[in-house]
Amino acid sequence: MSSTPSRVHPAWLPPEALAPLTSGTAAVVGDGPCLDTARRELAGARPAPAREADVVVATGDACADDLGLAELPAPPPRGAVTVRTGGRLVVVGHDGAAALRGLYAAARTAARARLAGRSTPDGVSIDAPEQPRRMLDHWDNMEVHPVMGQVERGYAGGSLFFEAGRVRDDLARVHEYARLLASIGIDAVAVNNVNVHEREAHLLTDDLADVARLADVFRAYGMVTYLSVSFGSPRLLGHLATNDPLDEDVRAWWRQATDRVYATIPDFGGYVVKADSEGQPGPFAYGRTHADGANLLAEALRPHGGTVVWRAFVYDHRQDWRDRSTDRARAAHDHFAPLDGRFAENVVLQVKHGPMDFQVREPVSPVIAAMPRTRVAVELQVTQEYTGQQRHVAYLAPAWREYLGFRLDGEHTVAQLAAGETSPDRPQPAGGLAAVSNVGTDAFWTGHPLAQANLYAFGRLAWDSSLTAEEILDEWVALTFAGADDAALTRIAAALHAMMDDSLARYEAYTAPLGIGFMVTPGVHYGPSVEGYEYSPWGTYHFADRDGIGVDRTVATGTGYTGQYPSPWRETYESLETCPDELLLFFHHVPYTHVLHSGSTVVQHVYDSRADAVEQLDDVEGAWASLADLVGTAVPEAYDARVRERLAEQRRSAVEWRDQLRTYFHRASGIPDATGRAIY
Ligand code: GCU
Question: Where is each Glycosyl hydrolase family 67 C-terminal domain found (predicted)?
């Protein structure tokens, strides 16, 4: 099923995107896999000595004189110095990976300048990533799962890495993919699903030579490779009697297994672990804590410099819906906050951005600020599980920016807490940013071609969270359509801004309202099913009755979740007066007639925004249609066909959401829509 299509869209790195760097002479100074990659990227240029070449790529050990420069500032850790002078461009990376990333950054700068109609001035720029770890997690399975397909929550075909139960022989597309990731600054990838099924558990032992082939590809683009491993490996793979993290044989098994990994892949990144979560084995079975569990693997990885990425997504997925006292939103904080300070130094605790599960609107997870002595990484979901599954246009950068800029402890932003850039009195160690990838064997990589922008935006925001969503979209457009002439490029950018800038807000407006979340078809999580999860064990309820809707998570009368926030948020969310409208139903159970800060009632808001959002799709479709004369030139025919197919499905699905939600709320409340628009 996952055969490689013969012609693949180049995403944001078509040959034209690098053309500004290869039109003259070039030199690459130094050795190593990333510099070799830089050499290949510049192969179209004429070779010249580094002192005079138009484009030079080097690492920090090169001296200014050899590069034809009067002086050269030292490149920062993980970053690069770029010198533009007299028509020359010199990129000097801290190491080979940083130099390669700097080369791609120069292509990006050129593309953006072109779109803006200006030239890049001479000068020195010093650029380093805000997040020290920028990781992509792939939920890829080796085998095709009967329900999930090959990539769990994947909406873009099969796995790029695996085919027919093993690592692909032909890794040409993995090279292309790694190149895309390097260009947005990613430095780590986990290649297999966090739900580790039996076959994939063996990657850790039996398939190491094949994993090494993947690691070779990623290394050439400046990335280290991680594996998701099963906490149950000692029993499953080693046939031990237990997985108890304090058992001596278990500890020895992990040490030996890890030694073998590093004997095969010396720069291996480490392990990603989903334990005691949604059926995955974990330390709870042995009466041990998650610190015991994580430290077991940390001990095995430490001698090799490896890292354990331990996920905080731990909750009871077999809850009784009758039980109103258990609150899934509380679970990660309840389990993990008490363990602060008990994790080994090479453990990173990876926390989903919200307390539930990647809903279109959630408050920021309080866990991110609750563990100042722990390396906390924030996990985002690029794959659009709950945001339209790469059939709807939903540009996620505006939401990610909001999360990353949120001052969770009243002082530091989420980006700062993850980056470990906190004040001297709160020296939180760095965890970084991670995200679940959205790619597959699809010819456009991401199903919806415009979903490429989400992958692009994740890397860029991990690099610099002060970039605006609009700036990032400009970059992506300018690189993706680098082959278009100036006039066409300007029109494409305008059309895509019209389609994408507010696309997530629009998606939110026709789906579940005011932070309530879910209301999706169970299992597949696509399309509306208002009561789909209401009587299920998953802990995702809305409690709608004839009078009102919402989850009371207050300290005063509810589950107490608001109490997990530091001030001022605990007070802000606790009070109906100050709780923001968009999160109202996440924190409070209110009557349908409750008046929002916007002045509308809850029920009228549901009626209006669902209907308005669907009406806006006329403009979205119109914006794309306005490019019709460019199809076949600046916009490939197949690209246009795919976008139009997706827009039609988006409309069909959005209408279904609108009609089901408006009708449900009308039937539940008995309150008519003041605008008189159709209800069924
Ligand atoms: C979601 C998703 C699962 C996934 C889980 C996770 O619940 O639906 O498919 O396994 O997140 O993050 O582990």
Answer: 446-677
